[in-house]
Amino acid sequence: MGAISRGFSGRRSAADVKLPPGQYLTTDFPVLSAGPTPHVLLDRWEFVIDDGTNVLRKWDWKSFRELPTETITVDIHCVTRWSKFGTSWEGVSLDTLLADVKTDASHAMARSYGDYTTNLPLKDLKNKQAWVAFRFDGKDLAPEHGGPARLLVPHLYLWKSAKWVRGITLMNHDKPGFWESLGYHIYGDPWREQRYSGDE
Amino acid sequence: MWRVGTVVALHDETATARTITFEVPDWPGHFGGQHVDVRVTAPDGYSTVRSYSIASAPSSDGRVELTVERLPSGEVSPYLTQELALGDRLELRGPIGGWFVWRTQQTEPIQLIAGGSGIVPLMSMIRTRASTGSAARFQLLYSVREPGAVFYRDELQALSDKDRSLIVTYVYTRVAPANSPRPPGRIDADLIANTTWPSKLAPTCYVCGPTPFVESVAGFLTASGNGPNKIRTERFGPTGDRK
Question: Inter-chain contact B42–A5, Cβ cutoff 8 Å?
């Protein structure tokens, strides 16, 4: 420990035991976005899986919503240090979306309306770890929280759960996305406190 | 890497906000708009971290200023704004953030729009512009509840008096002073159209404040023709600190 802060006592709570290091618990749902909230019309919405050259799969809103959905209850962790327990979502598993995609890709770049991007290892999108979510807490996902649909990858810091997601590009190597190019960690595991580039 | 900062000056900006100046050996410098993580540690080893925007321009003397608004039920901000005393030490990590920043090589017109304590990172940009002698044209539209809630008023006045390419406009949402050109009210589409750079000048816009404020202002900016890629936002709350 580097320095004792004279006169600081702080609050400790039993909930802290479930928290990743350096996080604190909140009950509301703060918003963090780099720019204006895009407002995407459902009849223009699409979700595309490509390999950088060819479109491999593509859904419009209607065909996307015909896919089987799952309800997910998970804890979420934002790099700005708040965590929220037991959030409830409905979405389509990436296992479903990737089911018919044959690929040797090692990584994926999630792409959003508004040009946000974030990179992930492809294996982190598989095996019941990632969804394209369109409902939160029983209601349609609000635009400021990423609606109509956002990526949900709750085992990584929330910036990896790209709001307003419009597709993923499969890649044969890792490449930094938006925040990853601006000083944030390339992978972002909250339990290893991988906040910033240079963190182990 | 965490660095120990020693409190070398304290100044109350308003009844609820305080500017804290730290001396941080080996501070690597920063850009206007960046923030720091602040770690406070109790005598029994319990510690917690919050992020705060930097208020000062980069300087060569290793000094970093933060302005912290007190959240009544916060865990850290009441300590920083009420308990902290000269000579106290705590830890800082940063600077952090490469997006919501103004760099001196930017020469395009700059539109800053602050809601409440959202002024802090924008003030760092204004101070950086002044200290580097940049000729970039800056406009600040600063929305506050009432006259007593304004941060940095005298300094903003002095800076804009001596430099006509810095224009400051106040918007009072609850109580306006007698000489105010408009009655109390929120920023609306007309005010954005009349008191910000025309979109044809392709200004870069920086908007910082509470989430609903940023949502509405960013909407007015895009509606008046500013490209979404020219609008950078930083939001706080409703939490920002532990309830």
Answer: yes
Q: What fold does the segment set B110-236 form as a domain? A: Rossmann fold (3.40.50)
- Where exactly does CATH 3.40.50.80 map onto chain B? 110-236
As a whole-number percent, the residues of chain A with pLDDT over 70 amount to 97
Q: Where are the alpha helices (DSSP H) in chain B?
A: 77-78, 119-132, 153-162, 189-195, 211-223
ipTM score for this prediction = 0.84
Q: Return residue ranges of chain B for CATH 2.40.30.10.
A: 2-96
Helix or strand run (H / E) with residue A48: strand A46-50
pTM (predicted TM-score): 0.91
User: Class assignment of domain A20-27+41-192?
Assistant: alpha beta
Rounded CA separation A181/B15 (Å): 39
Q: What mean pLDDT comes out for the span A75-90?
A: 94
CA distance A68 to A94: 11
Q: What pLDDT sits at residue B241?
A: 36
Interchain contact, B48 vs A24, CB within 8 Å: yes
Q: For residue B235, which residues of chain A lie inside 8 Å, CB to CB?
A: 30-33
What CATH architecture does domain B2-96 belong to? Beta Barrel (2.40)
* Closest chain A CA to residue B49: A22
Residues of A in contact with B219 (CB under 8 A): 36-37
Contact check, Cβ <8 Å, B91/A26:
no
Over residues A86-143, the pLDDT tens digits come to 999 999 999 999 999 999 999 999 999 999 999 999 999 999 999 999 999 999 999 9
Rounded to whole angstroms, how far apart are CA atoms A9 and B46? 8
The residue among B99, B213, B234 with the most chain A CBs within 10 A of its CB, best to mutate, is B99
pLDDT of A15: 57
Q: Which residues are paired to A88 by β-bridges? A: A73
d(CA B48, CA A11) in angstroms, rounded, equals 9
- The pLDDT, as a whole number, for residue A17 is 64
Q: What is the DSSP string of B28-91?
A: ----BT-EEEEEEE-TTS-EEEEEEEB-SPP-TT-EEEEEEEPPTT-SSHHIIIII--TT-EEE
Confidence of residue B239 (pLDDT cuts 50, 70, 90): very low
Give the pLDDT mean for A180-190: 95
Residue type at position A61: W
